[in-house]
């Protein structure tokens, strides 16, 4: 069988390698527009910051090495320019010589990826204005930062790559601002979680400004400033990371079903055209919870779906269950991860979402290096089905998210996930795992044992008129009534059992314990503030 694959990097190389492992008699040809067949795109920010020192480490496989390893044929710097589905042929052009060539196929896989979005403003072509998509981009950024005395940088785009680039520029001692026209950083997080991350980034020395549009990039030959609709930012270096766009313009008019340039596929990776598959950043998959088309331009998605497509080409009957928007991002002192639906998305899909924000230990509190996770867990109030989890922390937030992914993919309920035998030893976890602790807190909220105000509700004024009671480890809220948890063994003098009371502690646990006591002594209108002063700014 002759299988033609348009594009390499993640999906294309995975499919080609799997096809050749399945049957060495296959004729697999990979046409790749660039000269690199396989490189570590997700590692580019860390090369900029010298976390990865050698540029050769970014190249996973050279074309020659890949051909020897897999048996597939690789033609680099060969750009597909037209597909003829009825004739089962592809026209391609050598990007150096402009020589045209036609390739026939029995099966075609389109995995041409995506390119960075170039903002429609003047100045993008000035010196020291870069994108970050290829190894050459990262090499150029680091060279400029190392050799040209860059003191101030602006990153346009507050998504995962933009924030990772910002962190690595900061590692080089460069004053860094991140600008984004979206209302929040970290797409895919709920607004209050994104706001917390934004504040922590500022504390680390990285300014993130959202809700501003870049209107121009100015300078005399080289960049000097970035102009927005609010103000200007001096810059010696600019990195444009404002999103990507699928490289599918050459497919217009051939009958492929697409959404905003992204190719629609079914669970088998097939397009609407016979014998044509699509994978990677140019293709749509499905969301595992909603069943709706979803774009997941991630190396993980490309590899998982690519392997499945190769199996189907070889006669298997495999269905991709879909994605959850799972992501993890390393930030200065604060790793961020998420999966599943946000609270707003869950409501839009017809669920009855209930959530909790919990601050829990990430390992035994007495173990050196112990810190905390901030976890937002979202479930359906009626069925108790787990829908989404978002987590921050200095430690391994990915383990929280990976547990959540397992639960969501298996349509697990909170009751089914509550007593899992998760790994415990002081260097790794707490005796009751932080995921299980958060789940227990959410169950207490659902059953009414824990009556709360969420951080999002508090920010919107839900606790106005409530009397604030400070039950922190030490007095922390000026003007609030201070109570020591262990001293409350009956009605509290000066505290009316009928008044509205907001109990606030450092994280939320002591507020829950005090609420439990006060309820016993007849206080019927208490609320605990989720996340305490760790997550919220509390005033009286």
Q: Report the helical percentage.
A: 25-40%
- CATH class category name of the largest domain: Alpha Beta
Poorly predicted segments: none
The spatial strand order of the largest sheet comes to 5-2-1-9-22
Shape: globular
Task: Describe this protein's structure.
The protein has 540 residues and is of the alpha/beta class. It has 4 domains: 181 residues, FAD/NAD(P)-binding domain (3-Layer(bba) Sandwich); 114 residues, 3-Layer(bba) Sandwich (FAD/NAD(P)-binding domain); 114 residues, 2-Layer Sandwich (Enolase-like, domain 1); 84 residues, Oxidized Rhodanese, domain 1 (3-Layer(aba) Sandwich). The protein is built from 14 helices and 34 strands. The strands form 10 sheets. Strands 5-2-1-9-22 form a 5-stranded parallel β-sheet. Strands 11-18-12-13-14 form a 5-stranded parallel β-sheet. It has a 5-stranded antiparallel β-sheet with strand order 25-26-29-28-27, with helices on both faces. Helix 1 packs parallel to helix 7. The protein is globular and about 90 Å long. The protein starts with a strand and ends in a 5-residue tail after the last helix. The model has no long low-confidence stretch (mean pLDDT 96).
């Amino acid at each position: 069988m002759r299988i033609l694959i348009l594009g390499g990097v993640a999906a294309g190389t995975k499919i080609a390698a799997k096809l050749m492992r399945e049957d060495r008699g296959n004729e697999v040809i990979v046409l790749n527009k660039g000269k690199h067949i396989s490189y570590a795109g997700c590692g580019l920010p860390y090369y900029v910051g010298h976390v990865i020192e050698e540029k050769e480490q970014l190249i996973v496989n050279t074309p020659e090495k890949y051909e020897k390893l897999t048996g597939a044929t690789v033609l680099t710097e060969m750009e597909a320019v037209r597909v003829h589905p009825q004739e089962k042929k592809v026209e391609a052009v050598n990007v150096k010589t402009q020589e045209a060539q036609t390739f026939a196929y029995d099966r075609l896989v389109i995995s041409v990826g995506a390119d960075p979005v170039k903002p429609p403003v003047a100045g993008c072509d000035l010196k020291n204005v870069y994108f970050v998509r290829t190894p050459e981009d990262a090499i150029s950024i680091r060279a400029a930062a190392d050799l040209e005395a860059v003191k101030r940088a602006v990153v346009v785009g507050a998504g995962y790559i933009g924030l990772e680039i910002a962190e690595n520029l900061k590692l080089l001692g460069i004053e860094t601002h991140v600008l984004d026209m979206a209302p929040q950083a970290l797409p895919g997080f709920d607004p209050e979680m994104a706001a917390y991350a934004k504040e922590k980034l500022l504390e680390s020395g990285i300014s993130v400004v959202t809700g501003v549009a870049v209107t121009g990039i100015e300078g005399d030959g080289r960049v000097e400033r970035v102009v927005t609709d609010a103000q200007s930012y001096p810059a010696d270096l600019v990195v444009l990371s404002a999103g990507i766009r699928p490289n599918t313009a050459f497919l217009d008019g051939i009958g492929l079903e697409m959404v905003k340039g992204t190719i629609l596929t079914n669970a088998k990776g097939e397009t609407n055209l016979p014998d044509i598959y699509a994978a990677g950043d140019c293709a749509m998959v499905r969301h595992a919870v909603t069943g709706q088309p979803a774009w997941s331009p991630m190396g993980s998605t490309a590899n998982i779906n690519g392997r499945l497509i190769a199996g189907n080409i070889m006669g298997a009957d495999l269905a991709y269950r879909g994605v959850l928007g799972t992501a993890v991002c390393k930030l200065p002192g604060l790793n961020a991860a998420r999966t599943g639906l946000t609270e707003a998305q869950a409501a839009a899909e017809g669920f009855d979402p209930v959530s909790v924000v919990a601050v829990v230990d990430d390992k035994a509190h007495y173990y050196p290096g112990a810190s905390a996770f901030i976890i937002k867990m979202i479930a359906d109030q009626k069925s108790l089905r787990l829908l989404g989890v978002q987590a921050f922390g200095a430690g391994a937030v990915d383990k929280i998210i990976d547990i959540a992914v397992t639960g969501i993919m298996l349509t697990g309920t909170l009751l089914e996930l509550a007593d899992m035998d998760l790994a415990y030893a002081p260097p790794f976890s707490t005796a009751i795992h932080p995921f299980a602790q958060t789940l227990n807190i959410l169950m207490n909220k659902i059953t009414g044992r824990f009556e709360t105000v969420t951080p999002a509700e508090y920010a919107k004024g839900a606790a106005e008129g409530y009397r604030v009671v400070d039950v922190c480890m030490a007095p922390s809220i000026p003007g609030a009534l201070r109570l020591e948890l262990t001293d409350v063994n009956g009605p509290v003098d000066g505290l009316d059992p009928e008044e509205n009371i907001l109990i606030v502690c450092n994280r939320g646990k002591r507020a829950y314990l005090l609420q439990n006591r006060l309820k016993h002594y007849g206080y019927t209108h208490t609320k605990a503030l989720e996340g305490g002063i760790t997550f919220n700014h509390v005033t009286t």
